[in-house]
Amino acid sequence: MSLSIKANNLLVFTITLLLISSSLIYGQIPDESCPSSSVSRANSNSGNCNPKVYGDDPRRIVCVCNVQSCPPIGDVIEVKNGQVTVYESNQDGLRFLTTTLNQSVSSNEVDPVHGESCGEITVHSSEIVIDTRKTYQKIIGFGGAFTDSTGINVLSLKREVGKNIIRDYFDKSGLNYTIGRVPIGGSDFSTRPYSYDDDHPGDLNLTHFALAEEDQKYKIPFLKEALELKPNLKLFGSAWAPPAWMKTSDDIAIKGGLKGHVGGEYYQAWADYHVKFLDAYRKQGIEFWGLTTGNEPIHGLLFSLFNNLAFSPEQSKDFVKENLGPTLERTGYWPKLKIIMLDDQLLLAPIWVPKLLDDSDTAKYISGIGFHWYANNFLARFGQDWLRKSYPDYFWMSTEACEGYRLGLDPEKVILGSWKRAENYASDIIEDLNHQTSGWVDWNMALDTTGGPNWAGNKVDSPIIVNSTANEYYRQPMYYALAHFTKFLPPDSIRVDASGSYNGIEHTAFLTPDENIVLIVMNSNEFPVELNILGDLEFGVKLIVSPRSIQTIVTKRVLR
Ligand SMILES: *[C@@H]1O[C@H](CO)[C@@H](O)[C@H](O)[C@H]1NC(C)=O
Ligand SMILES: *[C@@H]1O[C@H](CO)[C@@H](O)[C@H](O)[C@H]1NC(C)=O
Ligand SMILES: *[C@@H]1O[C@H](CO)[C@@H](O)[C@H](O)[C@H]1NC(C)=O
Ligand SMILES: *[C@@H]1O[C@H](CO)[C@@H](O)[C@H](O)[C@H]1NC(C)=O
Fold first, then answer.
1. How far is the CA of 205 from the centre of ligand 2 (A)?
2. Which atom of ligand 2 is closest in space to residue 205's alpha carbon?
3. What are phi and psi of 532, to 5 degrees?
4. Is the separation of the CB atoms in 95 and 35 below 8 Å?
5. What's the order of all strands across the beta sheet hosting 494-501?
6. In which element (H, E) is residue 234 found?
7. Nearest alpha carbon, ligand 2 atom 9
């Protein structure tokens, strides 16, 4: 299937992207049933994907990496004046198809075509106007988590294959990640529940504190590899649970809080525990940029699914004020180290944020608000917008997300080749960014074909799935969805206004430090949408966004 749109050559610079999916993949000549305009396109290539199809649906495609072959996506092309570069991935199997288009006819204006009929397909039209003078938040970065399971899966491959996973995430030829989340001790994505001081109940001075075998085998080596590729990597730690003896439940996984009262010896020991962790990693040459106040405090209040520690908003406020903050200050970590509050569902933010930030003695220690995506909905966004206005000085960061997590609703934890899951990632990132979020951090970077290991049976999906039997790994559609953002939005990119009419097109726009305009759009319709892009560009751009696709469009900014 292919399609092109007739351009209004005198008034506009028109870019027609052919719907080439099937023709490119299967090497057929495009069937141009519509009148074609003179378009200059070059540099088409298809994203270094070595495809493998799962099941009966030919669109369930992953990209295979093995001993024979594992090319990375590749570096992004530097865009020049008079050019637009378009990167496209879609359900039909395009993976980062890169097209550079030259300006042939220039104009400030585009004559939008509404519902133009081309053969049997009605083209729906949409318009986006970019205003770079209206700016919002800056990007801090994108990343993933160094879970024990990630390390275990990387190590289950031959070294020559496994080492490419770290490259695929942190090298600029891959996702060019700039953030890493590090569980402090074990999480459910470990093969056992553990802390750094399990066997000495009452060791409030933490004399027996010691990193675990898991740190030495599954975390530190890969953190070092990532740091070699990205010396400025921003790492932040999150603790799931303290030693069982510090908890009211005397069990790592049974719900409960710290013993005693806030400000008391257990709370102080828990603050000291964080410092011991930072010290131990510093000894390994690994410095942290941030620390959350603990993974999902609500889990420990309500459930007993895996490693947890309960904090009410009130306790959290007092813990930061009386123990964590002063302890990090006394040991010289704070204020350089960013303290990130919440690290739990976005929906909870309206309860937690005012509690901590209205108390100036607590608020002074806090830099940002971390949230998880599992309960994101319009109410959560409503709360985020309101809080953002009331507390404008704190950054927002999505600190955990994954697919296949819904109990009961996701019987298949790993779905290889699922485009729907790629769309869910892209849609959430777009929403987050459009609600002033500065970073997005994925959960496990690599899981096995069942979505584990996970000692508590809480398996999920991941953008990279490892098949150790075949000594290969698969880059899922989710991996490519991430690439459409992470490779184009370096730290300090600033979100700019992009408004218009949509037809089911989700989008977000940024200005990078290099003065590039980056527009990311997703079409989750089953039909193509013609997109007119106007505003602070050298020229109006008109292109076709194929059905079920994600596109990143890069061009130079010109202020008008
Ligand atoms: C686009 O412009 C570049 C640089 O001027 C040139 O090298 C390239 O051949 C042009 N491509 C097309 C398709 O016109
Ligand atoms: C902890 O250290 C302090 C000061 O060194 C000491 O007085 C105290 O007895 C120690 N507590 C325990 C439980 O070892
Ligand atoms: C993993 O590799 C084995 C051996 O080649 C193969 O039989 C199996 O189907 C693969 N699993 C998946 C999920 O691709
Ligand atoms: C990769 O990330 C670094 C920040 O670590 C950034 O400076 C650089 O511009 C990025 N490279 C590309 C090609 O986006």
1. 6
2. 1
3. -105, 125
4. no
5. 41-46, 97-102, 83-90, 549-556, 516-523, 505-511, 494-501, 124-138, 529-535, 541-545
6. strand 234-239
7. 205
Ligand 4, CB cutoff 6 Å, lining residues? 75-76, 172, 176, 178, 230, 232, 487, 490-491
Active site residue 400: yes
Mean pLDDT split into 10-residue runs, the chain, 560 residues? 28 26 27 34 62 94 96 93 93 92 49 39 82 97 98 98 98 98 98 98 98 98 98 98 98 98 96 98 98 98 97 98 98 98 97 98 98 93 96 98 91 96 98 98 98 97 98 98 98 96 89 97 94 89 92 90
The residues facing 473 across adjacent strands are 65, 466
Token pair of 397, please? 């960061």
Q: Is 227 in the pocket of ligand 2 (CB under 6 A)?
A: no
Choice among 322, 400, 472, 538 that is catalytic: 400
pLDDT digits (tens, 9 = 90+) for 419-458: 999 999 999 999 999 999 999 999 999 999 999 999 999 9
Give per-residue pLDDT as tens, 29-43.
233 333 333 233 444
Instruction: Give the span between the Cα atoms of 297 and 348, in whole angstroms.
Output: 11
- Distance between CA atoms of residues 258 and 270, nearest Å: 8
Residues 6+ apart with CB under 8 A from 485: 142, 426, 429, 433, 440, 520, 552
Which residues are paired to 125 by β-bridges?
Answer: 530
471 in contact with ligand 3, CB cutoff 6 A: no
Residue having the nearest C-alpha atom to atom 6 of ligand 1 = 102
Query: Is any ligand 2 atom within 6 A of the Cβ of residue 204?
Result: yes
CA distance 66 to 68: 5
What's the CA-to-centroid distance between 102 and ligand 1, angstroms? 6
Cβ of 467 below 6 Å from ligand 3: yes
526 tagged catalytic? no
Asked if 39 and 6 count as a contact pair (C-beta separation under 8 A), the reply is no
Q: Which ligand is nearest to the CA of 234?
A: 4
Alpha carbon of residue 506 to chain centroid: 17
- Contact by Cβ (8 Å): 109, 103: no
Pairing relation of β-strands 338-345 and 366-372? parallel
